[in-house]
Amino acid sequence: MLKIKNLKCSYGSIMAVHGVSLSVKQGELISIIGGNGAGKSSLLLAVCGLLKTWEGEIEFQKKNIRGMSPPAIVRAGISMVPEGRQIFSPLSVLDNLKMGAYTRYHRGLKQEIQEDLEMVLEMFPILRERARQAAGTLSGGEQQMVAIGRALMARPRLLVLDEPSMGLAPKIVTMIFKVITTLRDQGVTILLVEQNARAALKIADRGYVLETGKMVLQGSGEELLVDDDVKRAYLGQDYGDFCDGRDG
Prior knowledge:
Layout: E1 2-11, E2 14-24, E3 29-33, H1 40-47, E4 53-60, E5 63-64, H2 70-76, E6 78-81, H3 93-99, H4 110-123, H5 125-129, H6 140-152, E7 158-162, H7 170-185, E8 189-193, H8 197-203, E9 206-211, E10 214-220, H9 221-226, H10 228-235
Parallel strand pairs: 3-8, 3-9, 6-7, 7-8
Antiparallel strand pairs: 1-2, 1-4, 4-5, 9-10
Helix pairs in contact: 3-6
């Protein structure tokens, strides 16, 4: 579904991604792990058209999307849950979710959009209760639910998630990862960047390890979980299947 080949991108003169190549097959859940500054988020931003690329190829469903605008990439079938959630704080929860379907309204899909909205509200029942509440007044976990729901409202073929557990309490982290696995089981293709490497690899079909903008290791989630270098550098103490012990 997604092929990246020799991709290079930067922030001004600072190179963030150095010739990265990876692939995502339809129906897979792919996790990308690495330390701070490894280039993980930069890679996702480049895929979504939010960071300028200098060289390489980004092919989505056999179509070159490198250089396309972010709205065009959303229309092509890629939707992102950004790091830090980046919800529209003054708007209601309902309006935030509807914004996710912005590129679909002009295509006469109102009934389909309403069905997707109902699906999101069933997935996150608390959002139905908070539907008229300003999204900025929600807890961090509830805001993450809004961000995921907003992305799903675009009905993506590829869902890109950037640090979905960041700053969340362990109980909410568990719930978020269960939602991610449920989406994968329902056939949604997922590209996941996550600091909680153990949790990410436990649910991944395959994983990639980034260091200083370069791809240094890849394998199945199970293989990377038992790799000595990965364990030493990224896994640390095991706090359970999904929780990483943070209490933010």
